[in-house]
Amino acid sequence: MGDSSILQLPSGPTALTAKIHPVVLFNICDSFIRRNEGQERVIGTLLGSYGGDGSLEIKNSYSVPHNESSDQVAVDIDFHRNMFDLHQRVNPKEVIVGWYSTGEGVSGSDALIQDFYGREVGNPVHLTIDTSFKSEKRAGILKAYVASTLSLGERQLAAQFQEIQLDLRMIEAERMGFEVLKKTAVDHLPNDLEGLEVSMQRLLGMVEDVIKYVDTVVEGHVAPDNAIGRYLADTVAAIPRIGRDAFDKLFNDSVQDLLLVLYLASLTRSQLALAEKLNTATQPL
Amino acid sequence: MAESGGNPPASAAAAAAATRSFAQAAAAAEQEMPLRVVRVDGLVALKIIKHCKECMPALVTGQLLGLDIGSTLEVTNCFPFPNRGGEDDEDLDADGANYQLDMMRCLREVNVDNNTVGWYQSTYMGSFQTVELIETFLNYQESIKRCVCIIYDPLRSGQGVLSLKALKLTESFMEVYRAQNLTGEKLREKGINWTNIFEEIRVDVYNSSLVAALMTDVETDAYVTQCDFDRLGLSTSPFLETNMEFLIECMEDLSLEQQRIQYYQRSVGRQQAQQSAWLQRRRAENAARKAAGEEPLPEEDPNNPIFKPIPEPSRLDGFLITNQISNYCGQITQFAGQSLGKVYLMDALKAEES
């Protein structure tokens, strides 16, 4: 009897951190753009995997049709199951980890949807993307929550959404290049030499920045900072010390190797052109 | 006055002619406007990269969905095909078709463009020019007039180059291939050689404003991205070595192919020599018979084995191998050019140091 009168609050912070892949963001934005007329937000399922250290990677997503009225939510469960089965066939390692919705923060009906996903997976993550960009700060656009129930004895009173840490895993996006992803239209993909030029210029810019900083410190305009100094020392020490002679040998060897390979490639090409001419010119008749 | 009076109808007729010809031109243009640009959604590119990278040692394929508008083909979404690993082929085929239909149905429900425009596949070092690729193209071509194949090379993309290519077969090659006329003479008639089997189409990337805004917002502040690390990496040998190995293998295949064609040419030459020798003998015999007052024998003998035509080997394999070789050469040249730049960068750094 005594138990039922105790209000049980969830205890302790959640240790869960979520890492999100860029393809999920793109998918959500796309489904938001393609929402039905009059629909205010889109929801969908998040797929991913759990790491050993309590971290969660959100790798994929698909949107699920739903209907919302004042206090009712209807999620197309058949669609959700079908789509999950189809995704499982391609990548069985990706399991349901939660759900997403567009819009700012958590709304009342989210508890119902959270409850539904709670039956699919132990502790579903709820991801929100503010597609109206209302919040000023960057952190306000993307948010992830887990829910815990507040219960009085046997009775469930409410669900409490707790925000969890959300990191972006942008390696794929970086590979592709933000230059390509943040413009609405890109005429052509950068080729290899252009890309190398950009990277080299960036490197040069960084080296110049460092030199400028060191100069100002040496001249006494800026107070020296030990931490930065150590970083710089570590960076310089990371370059292997090679004597001039050894380096020259290394340098010449690589250049000669590359030139040889280049020569071979162009030789092969001219052979091909020649073979082409000979093959079409020689006639058995 | 008479002149100016006579003018309007003439100009009207001219205008009518002009409009008609314009309409005709428009209709003609609509019929056969060549495909110039493939406009890929950022989402599609990321999805392809994800799928290809996750299944990396295995080569994977998937379907492209989008719209065909004028000279651009818009690819707005895609979905991966499950990996085939079973035994029963027929079962798997039906299974794959079902999967495809189910997926399309589901995607239509959430308002995704429900029109197949081609497929994508991953490749290893750009070794994609195969007979299977051509067959797949023809299969797709039966149901979709315009389709492309997007090829992604995960290994090359690890070097800091986004390696997305859109390919299609050239019309002229398709005609010849359908008619199975892959012999030397027919190919020469059509002016086809190994360079015009595949046609590469420019790839544009398109992002919705929403995505562009979001990406600008979440872009990392770091000065250095993974892409820069990939590009500036000094290790060159693994990539070059595999490339060279592939090149050498291809050269061997090509020389085998050449030998086959040479063998064919030699045997055709020998047959012709035999034929003319036989003909001469027959003519001499006929002259002798004429002198003796007998009927001359016919100058042709279909039953004689030396008149049986020798089947000509298909040139397709040779063409494809040549394409591969040229591809490898291109990759080596590009990569070596890049590496030379990096080596000289190191040299400059060293010169600064000492």
What's the structural blueprint in terms of helices and strands?
The complex is a heterodimer of chains A (285) and B (354).
Chain A: E1 7-8, E2 17-20, H1 22-33, E3 43-50, E4 55-64, E5 66-68, E6 73-75, H2 77-90, E7 95-102, H3 110-120, E8 125-129, E9 142-152, E10 155-168, H4 171-176, H5 178-181, E11 185-186, H6 192-219, H7 226-238, H8 244-281
Parallel strand pairs in A: 2-4, 2-10, 7-8
Antiparallel strand pairs in A: 1-9, 3-4, 3-7, 5-6, 8-9, 9-10
Chain B: H1 2-31, E1 37-41, H2 42-54, E2 61-69, E3 72-80, H3 89-109, E4 116-122, H4 131-143, E5 148-152, H5 154-157, E6 164-169, H6 171-178, H7 184-190, E7 198-206, H8 209-218, H9 226-232, H10 237-291, H11 316-353
Entry keywords:
heterodimer; A: 285 residues; alpha/beta; Cytidine Deaminase, domain 2; 7-stranded mixed β-barrel; two-stranded antiparallel sheet; B: alpha/beta; 2 domains; 7-stranded mixed barrel; elongated; metallopeptidase activity (chain B); mRNA binding (chain B)
Question: How would a crystallographer describe the biggest sheet of chain B?
Answer: 7 strands, mixed, barrel
CATH architecture term of the largest domain in chain A: 3-Layer(aba) Sandwich
- CATH topology (level 3) name of the largest domain in chain A: Cytidine Deaminase, domain 2
Poorly predicted parts of chain B: 1-16
CATH superfamily label of the largest domain in chain B: Cytidine Deaminase, domain 2
CATH class assignment of the largest domain in chain B: Alpha Beta
Rounded mean pLDDT of chain A is: 79
Broad structural category of chain A = alpha/beta
Q: How far apart, in Å, are the first and last alpha carbons of chain A?
A: 106 Å
What general outline of chain B do the C-alpha atoms trace?
A: elongated
- The overall number of domains of chain B is 2
Q: Judging by the overall fold, what is the CATH architecture of the largest domain in chain B? A: 3-Layer(aba) Sandwich
CATH superfamily of the largest domain in chain A: Cytidine Deaminase, domain 2
Total number of distinct structural domains of chain A:
3
Provide the residue-averaged pLDDT of chain B. Answer: 77
Low-confidence stretches of chain A: none
- CATH topology name of the largest domain in chain B, in short, is Cytidine Deaminase, domain 2
The separation of the N and C termini of chain B measures 92 Å
Highest CATH level, the class of the largest domain in chain A: Alpha Beta
| Helix vs. strand class of chain B | alpha/beta
Q: Output the number of helix runs of chain A.
A: 8
